[in-house]
Every structure is written in C-alpha cells, then in structure tokens.
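[[Sequence with tokens]]
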Amino acid sequence: MNLYINGKGRATDCCTLHSLRKEICSEDSSIVMIYNGFQTENDVQLCEDDNISFIEKGVMPSEDELEALMVSRHTPYVHEKVKKARVAIAGLGGLGSNIAVALARTGVGHLHLVDFDIVEPSNLNRQAYKISHLGMKKTEALKLELKDINPYIKITTDDIKVTEENAVSLFGNYPIVCEAFDRPEYKAILVNTLLEQKPEIKLVAASGLAGYESSNIITTRKVFKNFYLCGDRETGAEPGRGLMAPRVSICAGHQANMILRLILGIEDV
C-alpha cells in the first residue's frame, strides 16, 4: 500500500504501525509515533494514504522532517495556510511574547516583532523571557527564543516605538496585525491609526486581563468588520491589581487562537 511517511510517499507491504516502525527505524532508537495527527503507541491497522511520522526523541529533525511533523499534527490543509501566513505583533510584553510563542509553535511562516523596550526583572512574572535575557532588547531576546522553538520560520524585527506617524509603514503590509501593548495610549494609537488608514487589515486587540478574576469572563468579540477584541474589557491594571501570568496568558491564547482562525479564513469568533 502507499503511505505518507515523514512527509514523503512510500510504498510498503506492512499492514500495521508496529511492523512499519520495524521496517523504518532502528531497534535501539526511542521513537514517537504520530498516526494521522494522533500520537499513539498502539499497533493500529494501516490503510491506504495514511499519514505517519516517526520522530526520534532528543534529535533535532531536518526542516523537511519538522514540517512533516507539523503537517501530521495539524492536517495538511491547516498547515499549508499557516506556513504561508504573515502576522505582525505590536508589543512584546506579557501578551505579545506569549502570542508569538504560540504562533511559532503553530508554524506561522513569518512573524514580524515590534517593540522598543528591553527585558527587565519585572517582566519575568508573566512574559516569555528568561533571566539570561535581562538587558537585551525584547525583539532580539524573543527572536532567539522563537528560533529555539522553530528555527525554520521567518522572523523580522523593528526595535522602535509605534507612533501615529510610523504605524502604517510598520504594519501596513501585513494582512493580520496583533495589538499587544500594555499601555492604553499605545493601544489607541495603533488601533485608531490602522482602522482609519488601513481598514482592510485584520486587527486583533486586547483589553481587560489584569488581576486574578475568573478566567471565564475573558472572551473574544468581533467588534466590527476586521476588528476583534479579546479580554473582559473591564479589568485593567491598577494598585492592588497587577498583571499576572495566568490571566495574561489566557488572553494571549485568545488572541493567538483568533489569529489562527483568521489565517484559516474563519472570521467569526
């Protein structure tokens, strides 16, 4: 029968997953088996055109092998669109850094990272940085982190503060832009400028994610065409109610998931 094994077509007489593993892999290797998008240790019966990946634990795969693994987990239809996607992220703090990590793990082909700040100790309570990143530009530190997750995606950076004057030049060529600023005034500048001057851009923003209130009130809402807002829209940071990793990460997950839906052509929430 004909199967897709690690992304390549191959004919085999094997009828079960375990017999195929013996044919493909060395006996002393530690292997993860992905069968039609599902990790399994079971000896399943194989069918024509099944998609199978054998991944050796602890070994860095080649670009082709990593892509085959992504395809096997995401399904080909999803991965093809994700790989071609271009997304810009404005602000690389608690929201933006976690959104970027989620999108890199998803395999988004091109991420554009924009921030003007450096990594400092108070960032470590909720942002995707490490002590070793302290003092580095956030754009540089996050690019290093993302390349450790997926070295084959394209990452471009701008170490600059976003203003009304430069917003269009920074983000105007990206079909999807993620607003991930901590400060309301920066949020307003980016959102208002892009909605007015580049209304065709799909913009995913956030409002209301501070503290430790219920995660269930964080939602994604389509405000109007091409503008989506994640959060509870009420709970801002203030004395006695800071920005904490769980709720920040939940809101970042909402934004990343909405971006993925837009990449796949799904425009409802």
